[in-house]
Amino acid sequence: MHGEIRLRYLYEAARLGTMRAASDQLNVATSSISRQIAALEKELGTRLIEGGRRKIKLTEAGNAAFAYYQEMQAHRELFLSRVAELRSVRTGTINLAVGEAFINDAFSELLQEFMRRFPGLTVRVKMSGTNDAVALVRDDEAHFGLIFDVPRDPKVRARLTLSQPLKCIVHPKHELAKHKSVTLAELKPHSIGLPEDAFRIRQIVREAEQAEGVFLEPGLIANSMMLLKDFAKCGRGLTFLPEFLVQPQLSQGKLVAIPIDNPVLSSTRISLVTRAGRQLPNGVYRLMLRIEAHLKNLIASTAAQ
């Protein structure tokens, strides 16, 4: 402890130029500054300050002691910051608003790993459509949200946005499965499964229909992405889904994703959103970074297929 105090006195005296200035800064007597530096020199067995100067000039050993104290303080600051950070993520609740499309085995494993690492934190996930998720984030009922679209609310901003076009999803033996791309007009004669009107995917499909003047008649309307996926997987018809939602089935050869020649459907995106200006707790921020990495890896692995 004495050594650290003596180093500090030397550091302040050298930084400020005189022992008098250091005494004013530290609120101790100038004679005390001088005695402690002399004691440090005796302890180290070498001069730290060149003699015969009005302003302090450090010797080579003095410069080494100055740099050592600087480094020691930087490590101390880092250590205290790390402790404070760990303390701040020990307890609390993290609220997420997540679209059904994002909830899969990999997402569940991510949450479980996070909760194992921070057992004092509670993660509350609310499955929500795009509009509801944005409202929950805007009203601070969710720390952040995962949506299929970009936020249209000025109080909500996208921290991460990734391209994820809607594609025509079919069974490998469907007559369209070998097509390189399809148009809405080509899809019209086929059995189609679509989400309910409240889903953003259905709203985007309607925008695409209106842009082309082609209106599809769904054979199945569902409020479940899983049911729509199964509708295509069983070969009963086609549906419109983002590729990442069916990535496992694509890699297993159980489904095929066909690009749709339509500017509305080919320009859709997924977003991680927060309320503009909201400062997020450390635990929330840590989970958000993990989910961002998960989404980037998911999209990259889907694109690589």
Tally of strands = 10
- Assembly context of the chains: single chain
What structural class results from the helix and strand content? alpha/beta
CATH class of the largest domain: Alpha Beta
Report the CATH superfamily of the largest domain: Periplasmic binding protein-like II
Descriptive notes:
- The protein has helices at 2-16, 19-26, 30-44, 60-88, 105-117, 130-138, 184-187, 200-212, 225-233, 247-251, 282-303, and strands at 92-98, 121-127, 144-147, 156-163, 166-170, 192-195, 220-222, 238-242, 256-258, 269-275.
- The protein has 305 residues and is α/β, with parallel strands linked by helices.
- It folds into 3 domains: 2-88, Winged helix-like DNA-binding domain superfamily/Winged helix DNA-binding domain (Arc Repressor Mutant, subunit A, Orthogonal Bundle); 92-163 and 269-303, Periplasmic binding protein-like II (D-Maltodextrin-Binding Protein, domain 2, 3-Layer(aba) Sandwich), CATH 3.40.190.10; 166-267, 3-Layer(aba) Sandwich (D-Maltodextrin-Binding Protein, domain 2).
- Strands 2-1-3-10-4 form a 5-stranded mixed sheet, with helices on both faces. It has a 5-stranded mixed sheet with strand order 7-6-8-5-9, with helices on both faces.
- Helix 5 links the parallel strand 1 and strand 2 (121-127).
- The longest helix is centred in the N-terminal third of the chain and has 29 residues, at 60-88.
- It is elongated.
